[in-house]
Design brief:
Two copies of one chain form a homodimer. By secondary structure, chain A is of the alpha+beta class. Helices cover about 30% and strands about 15% of the residues of chain A. In chain A, the strands form three sheets. An eight-stranded mixed β-sheet of chain A has the order 1-5-6-11-10-9-7-8. A five-stranded mixed β-sheet of chain A has the order 13-12-14-15-16, with helices on both faces. In chain A, α4 packs parallel to α10. At the A-B interface, α1, β1, β2, β3 and β4 of A face α1, β1, β2, β3 and β4 of B. Chains A, B: GO terms for molecular function: ATP binding; histidine-tRNA ligase activity.
């Protein structure tokens, strides 16, 4: 019986209207590193350097070592060196198994975004460098993947999507009606030393709301991320959100008359707490016009983990507290209170946030932040536009996959083609093409065997692609206008008329 | 009656399992230029140059012109100049309306590929420049968007996908079972003078078959493109394929003892016929070691438009003829003969093709080639790998959209969110969040009104997003655990219990 011959790690289902995978989630560990192309296979082809000097000479590089034949017309063999078969350092190929996972992830990003009424947008991966020039000492700025193009323009591979979004919002101006609810899934780049297995590119899911000044915006964004978490099998005991507001810092800085233009810089310094020594943090804060007293007070505020304590410290009247209180109250209504925690130390590493900031974290504390976002009401004016209230988040494709792997929640995804069609005779190859076409016109997916192969090979391939049916085109049946249809799960075999094939 | 208030140009449907748009095709003209972001709006924000010099000074750029307030904490205003609100020259933003069209197109690319049993793959958009260094004088090579990165590596934004695919195939080596049937949809870049409205980036759909030496491969690829054309409403009277084989040229060159290593270069020169003056073509061919007699004979062969004439010229024994005959015979079996035409002048502009070549063209002759492809059995060895028989095609996103516009076949795509949920009272905003969550958990899409807005505004928004239902959360109903549900197409209005809401 032609049951599935080789068991497959992933199980992939096609939906007629959907391009990626429908999941089956199982709580178990898979000992495979998805999203990380193997760098071992055929390493022998690699050269130690990945770059080949350009030969600018116009002379022909006539080589005689390779003989062409009528069977294989020669192409010019210009590349003297063997190329590196790996993608450039820090980047990934997506072979089919990794692509299925990426599509699965993006599918859920899209589905959640659309359930929340967001529209998809995108921007060029290559942007003007000017879009990312900020002076706050952000990590993202230091890691800008920038170039000079052939027209002597300073360009950069986008490190994030928000500046492009801001640019487009300014460009659209009054032609769009607010609020805008936009999402994007785009590749972002950073040029950093390749430590800790961090890559130089990742895909990022962004959702942004433009035109809503109220904390309702942030509450809705967090709700969408939680909806995503739930869909992929994560619960409030797996992940949570740390929430604060930059207005907390602002109120402290105001007490100590720290110049307002230092605000972004101070936030970036504080975001480095835990990543660099506290002495360096204090030194950096001193150089940002903060007194020692102010610094100690600030650090004390940052240690607060309850709104009650924050109220003791800042009083009940400030916006920081009322925003945060409203967010926690909305969280109750949405039903996600247990996911949310006030943590004054959260500031996020981007200069442009102005209000609520949040980050998703794994409760086992092993991984970097899963996602992060907040309110950025003043970004547009830094680009010369009129400010609009705005909030949004970024959610990368790297940490979440790590987390799913840790929790044994990676989906089983496998190729699945409904039918495999094969002729039993060289002369019937054209007939097999006709059969494949009939099935495809009826919406079925068909892997057509394009060569003459033994039946054993065909069954093996059928198993590999998880085919449901094997359709054999043989002489005797074909003369009757029929084909042999074998249901692979049961072994049941029928002769079916071409016009009854479905 | 709350019917749709403002008529919408496009009509967008959500499918619960599908992220992009389901089309409704209509044969009429839309006088809008999709896929071309408006460059007029807010042009006032643009500077004449798109690049802003980097300020390298470490000093703080303390500016006092902007006052921060507790309401809007200040961010550092580092960008002195107003930025260009347009994407970099030759690139595109994808605002929602353009993104819907892109998703629609990609959806059909994916669906067709999967119907043919192909698996999706992807590669880095930034590749090592070495991958594209070929000496044949290809247009694609001259337009390489290349840089030196911060690690002094020569890198390039990929101009095409095939070299990356070849790299990955070599890397995977014997770990994959042949044939591979892979497809990809990726952005490709070329740096060219911005003439004739050509852009510097485009998305390209590729399908490739690795491991099949027989013309069945090419026939299957052409069948998949035709399946795509049919899906989007194009017929054999709109488009066709010009088909030839590079073996035709090879046989002619062999007669005249033209060195084999000139083959790729001669193909590239011939591909320029019609684009540059014939005198230049002749001059280039002379410099490629061809005699004047050979050139005239070659040009005569290239003018042939029937296989019978080709057989007269080359005899019946060659591979060129037998491959082409087989392809036309298979086309009959597939049922797409009327789409296919032999045209000896087709060679395609890439150096690596070795056998059958084909291109899709519009029958009105107004547009550049819609797509192109062929057999490339010798590409892997140019990268230091073992050759494998291979064929594939590239299909860009630009010309096809032009063609659909010409033919009035652009789909009507519009945002559609199933429900709009709104509280009638500031105090009930949390209740509205709860209602939105209930509906979303039941798989419905919900646009939640995040501010207090007058009902008139809400109806307008409902129309803009093509909502099916308006759900109002009012005090009286809420106290009874109910909400007001209005079906917008009929105006029908019902009070429904929360737990009966679906």
């Amino acid at each position: 019986m032609p049951a599935i011959l080789n068991s497959s790690l992933f199980n992939f289902h096609h939906h007629p209207l959907f391009s990626t995978a429908v999941l089956s989630l199982r709580r178990h560990h898979l000992n495979v590193s998805l999203f990380s192309a193997s760098r071992t296979t055929l390493r022998a082809y690699s050269t130690s350097s990945s770059s080949v000097p350009i030969e600018s000479s116009a002379n022909q590089n006539v080589r005689t070592g390779r003989s062409g034949s009528a069977t294989s017309p020669p192409v010019e063999h210009d590349t003297a060196q063997k190329i590196d078969v790996n993608p450039p350092k820090g980047t990934r190929d997506f072979p089919p198994e990794d692509m299925r996972l990426r599509n699965w992830l993006f599918h859920h990003f899209r589905e959640v975004s659309q359930q929340f009424g967001f529209e998809e947008v995108d921007f060029p991966v290559l942007e003007s460098e000017a879009l990312y020039i900020r002076k706050a000492g952000e990590e993202i700025r230091d890691q800008l993947y920038c170039f000079e193009d052939r027209g002597n323009r300073r360009v950069a591979l986008r490190p994030e999507l928000t500046p492009s979004l801001a640019r487009l919002v300014i460009q659209k101006g009054k032609s769009v009606s607010l609020p805008l609810k936009w999402f994007a899934i785009g590749q972002c780049w950073r040029y950093e030393r390749m430590t800790r297995g961090r890559r130089r590119e990742h895909y990022q899911w962004n959702m942004d709301i433009i035109g809503v000044p109220d904390v309702m915006g942030e509450a809705e964004l967090i709700s969408s991320i939680i909806t995503f978490f739930k869909r992929i099998g994560l619960t409030a005991s797996d992940v949570g959100f740390k929430v604060s507001s930059r207005k907390v810092l602002q109120e402290v800085l105001k007490c100590y008359s720290v110049p307002e233009n230092m605000f972004g810089r101070v936030c970036i310094i504080i975001d480095k707490i835990g990543k660099i020594p506290m002495d360096d943090i204090r030194k950096d804060l001193l150089s940002a016009d903060m007194s020692e007293v102010a610094i100690e007070d600030l650090l004390q505020v940052l240690s607060l983990k309850s709104l009650a304590k924050l109220e003791e410290k800042l009083g009940a009247s400030g916006e920081a507290l009322s925003d945060l209180k409203q967010l926690f109250s909305l969280a109750e209504k949405y039903g996600y209170s247990e996911w949310l925690h006030f943590d004054a130390s959260i500031v996020r590493g981007l200069a442009y946030y102005t209000g609520i900031v949040f980050e998703g974290f794994d409760r086992e504390g092993k991984l970097r932040a899963i996602c992060g976002g907040g309110r950025y009401d003043r970004l547009l004016s830094t680009f010369g536009g009129d400010d609009l209230p705005a909030c949004g988040f970024g959610f990368g494709d790297a940490v979440i996959v790590e987390l799913l792997k840790e929790r044994g929640l990676l989906p089983e995804l496998n190729l699945q083609v409904e039918n495999i069609v094969c002729s039993l005779d060289q002369e019937l190859q054209g007939a097999a093409c006709a059969v494949a076409t009939i099935l495809r016109e009826k919406g079925q997916s068909v892997d057509l065997v394009l060569e003459n192969k033994p039946l054993k090979w065909v069954f093996k391939r059928a198993a590999r692609i998880n085919a449901r049916r094997l359709i054999l085109v043989g002489k005797a049946e074909w003369q009757k206008g029929m084909v042999n249809v074998k249901t692979l799960s049961t072994g049941e075999q029928l002769e079916i008329k071409l016009d009854e094939l479905e």
